[in-house]
Fold each of these.
Amino acid sequence: MSAPGSLACSKILYPETEQSQLVNVEDLELPKGEETNMLESVSNGAVMAVQLVVAIIANLIVFLALLALLNSVLGWMGELLFLGYLFFPLAFVMGVTNPGETFIVAQSMGTKTALNEFVAYKQLGQLVKQDKLSPRSAMIATYALCGFSNFTSIGIQLGTLGGMVPSRKRLLSQLALRSLLAGCISCFLTASLAGVLIDQPILCRPQNEKEHCFDVNKFI
């Protein structure tokens, strides 16, 4: 659901004011490779892939280090506590109106944005097990965290796209934060729509690892 929303948000934040030169696929001119046989192509592709992976890892390490530095500097406010206050109004507007739950969801949104969605979902699962969130708040948080709009992804994108097109790295770095904002808005809009459409969600809590909320065998 957030994928088409991100396209709409990107057009709002970065409107297309000029006629695109690549409206027709036929107008796209791709340079031909200089390789003369398959083995040369495989070898060159492997070398380029290694360079790309190294660039991604380097950017990822740097961005995580910067976030760790930021978190350490602001440690006197509590671990990512400032992000909880930052996202508190957004969580409330999305439909999490209980004050205690609003701050918890806001902290999860901050964790997802600063670190990644996997860490945020792990924390959300623990909160659900501890009955700290109502089914509605847990549902809204689930949709709000579903996306790759975080600072870690910026490092991956700059490493990937910058390695593929080094000449456009300056433009990519200029649009990085704007793309992060578009992704966040898209996820939060999806969560808001889910809160509007689903009034009383059912929260499933499996008692053990063998139990599942959705039994696929019933539909086979």
Amino acid sequence: MEPSTATVAATKPVPEPSPVTSKPATAVSSRLLAALKPPPRGEDYTILQALVSVDMLLLFTATVFGVGGTLTAIDNMGQIGESLGYPPRSIATFVSLISIWNYLGRVAAGFASEALLARHRLPRPLILAAVLLLTVPGHLLIAFGVPGSLYVASVAIGFCFGAAQPLILASVSELFGLKYYSTLYNFCGTASPVGSYILNVRVAGRMYDQEAARQGAVAAAAGKGVTCIGVRCYRESFLVITAVTVAAAVVTAALAWRTREFYAGDTYAKFKEGN
């Protein structure tokens, strides 16, 4: 007995879908992966390649929390001096010291990092990690309010803030190339205000207001303005800033470890070949 037409149709294998239908999706994913695949360090990255790279993520994170902490100290130096009982003349001196040592830090970091790179092949991110660690004593002096310590803290924080800038920007040009340097320069520039917002507004500002509100019950009853006075105004916030600064230095050291082979070679080789 021959099988019926319905039985033959039921047992007939269903043809697999043509691979042509999956080609467009495969092609798109292949192009995307090719676009995101970074070139060797030191070559010209595209903007997208640089923004999604691990090196940029580490550098951006370190800038947010390392430089953001120094910006918080600089922005609040006048209020810190007032809270710790310094006279207006001393507070003006702190601002001047920060400006002077900011400039000296920029100059010194440029010369020193170039010399250390040329003679000892020290990765520039490693020098940046050392600079961030140098800010830690300044933050701790503010946190514990040691008498007369704001002079030293102003020098340390101003110098380190200035020194960090050329190190960050030089690292960007060396690791990601110069083709899109202006865009990447401005992208890294956004890290500082982001860090300042997080640490200044959300951390230091909020903790200062809480302590001022705690102290302000008597002042409000007397009809006076509320100003936070004492070491407690900034102690907790600068302990937090100290912790995240150390974390930023560790992140920068991780970037130095990742790029150690690149910096062990001649970072200017492609420019010499071009000549």
Amino acid sequence: MTTGYLRCNGMYVAEQRVGQSLSRVAPAHFESRKNRAEQMKNPIPYCAEYFGHKMHVDQNEKLSMYGVTHVCAIDGYSGKIISHTLMPIKNNLAIYEDVFRNPVLSYGLWDQLRVDQGREFCLMLFVQDMLSKYRRNTDRLPYMQTTSKE
């Protein structure tokens, strides 16, 4: 925020130098901001052991007022975008067909599906649960619904 204000006034200062200056000017405020940022981090380190271990599915509704909802699936190990779709409104069937079914037919069944809490992915979760005995590693849960922070 401070670097943006400075740039608007024609001054270009590196973020690291601004942070150092803020820590000298208001050390208590700087320390509390740093602690809040630490609390927002997930304490458990992320680990995907191989391609097909975890598939992350998320949606973006920032453009929904213009009739656009974007849903994307990413492999947790490689970071590769496996599939995505655009639709005017959330549609479980379209999400299942474009984001889950096609990649499963192309790459195989993922060991674990990770989604946000909500009902827009319920068909995918149901199918993942029904097919869970055909996964590579059946010791893991077939899916996890977590908040965005976790």
Amino acid sequence: MLKKKQFGSNFIWGTAMSAFQNEGWATADGKGESIWDKFTSGSKLIKNQDQIGNASNFYKDYNQDISLAASLNFNVFRFSISWSRIFPEGIGQINKKGVDFYHQVIDSCLNNGLTPWITLYHWDLPQKLEDRGGWTNRAIIDWFSNYVDFCTKEFGSKVKHWIVINEPMSFTGLGYYNAYHAPAKSGLNNFLKAAHHVTLCNAIGGRITRENVSDAQIGMALSCSNVKAVDKRSINKRAASRVEALLNRFFIEPALGLGYPSDHIPGLSLILKYFEEGDEELIKFDFDFIGLQYYFRVVTKFSLFPPVLFATEIPPKDRTKNLNAMNLEVHPKGLSKVLNFYNQYHGIKKIILTESGVCYPDQIINGEVNDTKRLRYHQKILKEILKAKKKGIPVDGYLIWTLVDNFEWREGFSPRFGLVHNNFNTQERIIKQSGYWFQEFLK
């Protein structure tokens, strides 16, 4: 039986959320437009043509949700800052009401006994900056540095835990390579430019935070997957190693001084044309922790497309019935492989599982949500964390995605990850069985 004490007295227990997916009120109190505001506005690309509206209303109901997290006995509340709520045009004039809002969120955390963790960038780039090239424009180093400098000086006396950039592979790949996410750019050159500038900003943002916040704990949050070849043939095993290099190595290795993993993906050497003098040193940063974000397994095989990678995923629905509501393979045991993989790197001081969760449909019966499958998923993840800790892998926390059901990017409102059910029409919250389990477990 799982017991809290097995994880140690210093283990971090929390939840994670993002500004765009939860806050709503996209134009309230002087907020500027973000790339996701534009991408979703009246869009037929969003599943069921969902319109985000006020999302889960966190902009108005933040105190209620933070109190909910405290009532479930978590000790950390991770949230992100909307860049365009602070700087409506990305740079220049500051929106005082936006600044005040995040002070209120931080104070609510502290008043409820929760340690606030801030993510500085969780995908919602100001649209005014995207109009100037966004992450493909090297000028973003200055834009981002200015934003980080302001936030860390403004909030650093009250917040000591900072994640610079959330899941760089996700938003550069989906937003700048295959146009599936905002800002809907495509092509290898757009991806490589954006990825290199993100790598630079991740490290530079870390250095700015270190300078501005005394006793700061600074991390990067990486999406990661358990990658498996479809069979033992060498051509498919090599394809899997290329996919793993892209998904699991691409952003960690530059920070550690190892450069980009062009050893497994020779085509990645094309990124060197976007280097300027000094970049090899600028992309390095000694993070205090690495945040890993684990959701699914990827099974791959050799393919002529896409070129450079020469690998493709076997669609999960063609190989397993163990799927979440987004048709991704649910595979908690794969977390062990991922933790072992990252533990091989010298220079990683500690690992926090800064996101993991699963989406299944909720059914309300007599005012209750008995989400047994979601609860079992989290219990299995906890068992994998325990196995890793017993091996000496420094896994020091688990931040659940997520507290309250929210807007899941292009998938709209359908995927429900929360420990708390949300009626998006009324904003009524119902704690699910999984939430009550954590409340008891964390006593």
